[in-house]
Amino acid sequence: MLARIIRLVEDAQAAKAPIQKLVDKVSQVFVPAVLLLALITLVGWWLYGASVETAIINAVAVLVIACPCALGLATPTAIMAGTGVAARHGILIKDAEALERAHEVSAVVFDKTGTLTSGTPKIAHLAAVDGNEDVLLQQAGALQRGSEHPLAKAVLDTCHEKALAVADVTASQSLAGRGIAGTLNGQPLALGNRRLLEENGLSAGDLADSANAWEAEGRTLSWLIEQGAQPRVLGLFAFGDTLKPGALDAVQQLKAQHITSHLLTGDNRGSARVVAQALGIDDVHAEVLPADKAATVAELKKTGVVAMVGDGINDAPALAAADIGIAMGGGTDVAMHAAGITLMRGDPRLVPAALEISRKTYAKIRQNLFWAFVYNLIGIPLAAFGLLNPVLAGAAMALSSVSVVSNALLLKTWKPKDLEDQRP
To answer: Which parts pass through the membrane (predicted)?
Structure first.
């Protein structure tokens, strides 16, 4: 894992940002232009009546002062410093384009479970239609045995705590955006959200009051139903999760950076609304199917540059669809592969930190390029008019390069807000 991280950082440092490609194109024109200016200087001084030696010295001074070292160092040194200091604080930027693009972000879309919440839900309430909660737990546990979903872990942990046996199911299948189904001892069962109920023509029935009350508390609901010729509701689970300690700070820091936060989740509207209200997020997209998350992100991209933050397989399409994908630490490999930035810890405050280091790095690139161009704008005429000899021109050229590198290395002093003494 460490070797992979080192390789990704090295790849990012070696990659060319879009602005560097522009600089390369400018350099392709700049070098021939300098050669032409040196020739004009040589001919001009000779026509002016100066000695051949003086004409050659001034022409050489033009060539020396215009050496495009500072221009070539302006971008890569800033990128190397920016990605390096970001990695030191747990922000793994996988390519230079993501680093540059991130400084333009105007909106951040957060997944809920595992991103803003701890991702370790517990069963807060459950209700069995026949009153036998242990059987309900065993049935739900059997369906989710072997699953890595956080809700599955909550059910299986409860079964383990109560020493309830969990059998194997047959014909198990995942129902995208709805839940999971399988057959237990010949009984076709399914566990999932309200969409699963509607697909089977069922309603909450006697559990409606409990469902409404628990949803108002911000709980995530899962319904256990029996499928078949006469489907029926067997019970209801209500899961509770806690916000990550840094979630509120993250949203507030983004707001201070004039970046809008959005919540995008497949969970029910009640749970999404409670989380959004606690964090001060106004725009909420709830009960969104995994396949539709990417479409929601694409719609938001019409109004600005969008970053998507997620940690699960279901988030991968949205991460890929966003201008910048940010995968939370501890998430799935699929999510990390789809993202341009990976946070090595699950701290939401690293999201505004990643955008901040991007802005600071881009600012350094612009400062370096400005200095490189101003240096040439002033130095070339001085050399052409004989006010700089080749020795002074060489010293000035070296000073320019050192200044650009030193300015870029100032990024090494950057520390993310409120995270100064934390390391991955």
So the answer is: 29-48, 54-74, 369-388, 394-414
